[in-house]
TrEMBL record, chains A, B:
InterPro entries: HTH_HxlR (IPR002577), WH-like_DNA-bd_sf (IPR036388), WH_DNA-bd_sf (IPR036390). Keywords: DNA-binding, Transcription, Transcription regulation. Signal peptide: none annotated. This is HxlR family transcriptional regulator. The keyword DNA repair does not apply. PROSITE patterns: HTH_HXLR. It comes from the Archaea. GO terms for molecular function: DNA binding. It holds the Pfam family HxlR. Residues 23-122 form the HTH hxlR-type domain.
Amino acid sequence: MDDLPDEDGTEKLEVWCAGEEWCPVTTTASLIGKKWHPVIVHRLLEHGPSGFNELQENVDGISSKVLSDSLEDLEDNQLVEREIISEKPFRVHYSLTEYGESLQPVIYAMRDWGMQYLNEPDDGSAA
Amino acid sequence: MDDLPDEDGTEKLEVWCAGEEWCPVTTTASLIGKKWHPVIVHRLLEHGPSGFNELQENVDGISSKVLSDSLEDLEDNQLVEREIISEKPFRVHYSLTEYGESLQPVIYAMRDWGMQYLNEPDDGSAA
DNA sequence: CTGAATCCTAAAGGATACTG
DNA sequence: CAGTATCCTTTAGGATTCAG
């Protein structure tokens, strides 16, 4: 609770997140709040430009349809860029745009928190 | 790429995110990757313990069913705690557990990124 | 007021097969 | 290799109503 100064800054906060599309938290959630999006971005952050199957291997479990769909959505939001690097043996590279790269703090925060969560003894006490 | 020291930690990274449930990024995504969860947590971070309707007002747009459902899910994952503070005029307080509080960096990272995204001129150049 | 129950729709996620 | 096309199941999200 150290975020807001006081005065007018505070009321703005009221407006953001009680609103429609323009809540920054919801905005981010809308863009990467899908099941596989954060992992895909994470993989691209770690591995750099990747081919389709390479990406599919790294994400595992994901079907080509879902991966394709997710990538399309990420492209649509300018988070991911698709580059055809070879025509004959058709090859493609998916990479992060600057928008996508800028997600690093978010993804890493999610990763760090997830690690912490996974390491917790899950406390046996009553919920 | 400053995430892991080296040793066994690094190779673990490969394994984590090609795996099942135990990918920290996916774990976090599973817990707060729903449409309204981040906003709810954000509201609770900003406002502290809140009543049901108060929360609904703050989140806006959300229906009581979805809010109730979301809160139940958050409770189930020990991110939110529900406390009955009055029986006669039935009143309840929802607040963050320590798990929930620990999400602050994630939520704020999302908020900050969202703000940045919203402020971008959306670049008129080709996608 | 708090919030659970019901019902419904849209969309996400997934399995499989097929194409350029 | 890099997807698309179908079809199907699950679930998230939402409107409304009901109950404590």
